[in-house]
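User: Some background: our group keeps a shared notebook of sequences we're curious about, and every so often someone picks one and asks for a predicted structure to add to the entry. Today it's my turn. The entry only has the sequence so far, pasted here. Could you supply the structure so I can complete it?
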Amino acid sequence: MKAKDMSQEERLEYLIQYLCRDSVRYKVLRVEKAERRATLRSLMNIRMPGPVSEEFLEIQDAFLQQEAAEKGIVQVEAIPTIQEAYGINGKLGSRISLWQGDITRLSVDAIVNAANSGMLGCFVPCHGCIDNAIHSAAGLGLREECGEIMERQGYEEATGKAKITGAYNLPCRYVLHTVGPIVYEALTEHHCRQLSSCYESCLSLAEKNGLDSVAFCCISTGEFHFPNEKAAEIAVETVREWLEHSRIERVVFNVFKDEDLEIYEKVLRDRLQ
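Assistant: Of course. Here's the predicted structure to add to the notebook entry:
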């Protein structure tokens, strides 16, 4: 049966069965109906880079694209600028937006993924980090491309650097993967320079690839423990300085938590008004 002729339930069952057969550990996994979607995500999360069949990709893509449509795709043109939303009338007010929600819904030229140095995505089943969310929504093709890039590179990605990949089943065109600093104890100037470099590296890659719009997540503030307010200040200031001499038309600061929304609202008013 063709992927387009299958129901979502049939696609889900096929994908789970395929990944179970593909696994040494989970070949005879029994899955309760209520747990099937989480099981698929978990099986995708733990799978190492490697080829899958064309049939699998066709069915996976149909499944994930329907899920994306059901979640609702948000066009960058529909997101108000900070000039429109907050009355911030500085010269960059029409080129910057603040948007709260799921970054995997955004139809922009590129979204930014807060990756780890392995650059292969999060392997923890159903983990709450953005790296896991992006890879889960994109599908296995994203990890495969990341694996090919890292195999050619031959060493882990340095903090502050970035790579660009396709977006696969995400509504954006590309994903920019950057490795933010991990703050184990006290925050240092070195951490701050590294975080600024993450934004610069992503914007540089966006320009080199002719992209007009980029959506940034809150790099390093979650699992990597960078203080939220200082991270927002660095993000806004670095983007402000870059846009002064850049052709990029729109930068979206994407937040998920209410706390980060309030922080960015304050920082944007303070820095760009």
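Suggested note for the entry: The longest strand covers residues 110-115. The chain has a mean pLDDT of 96.
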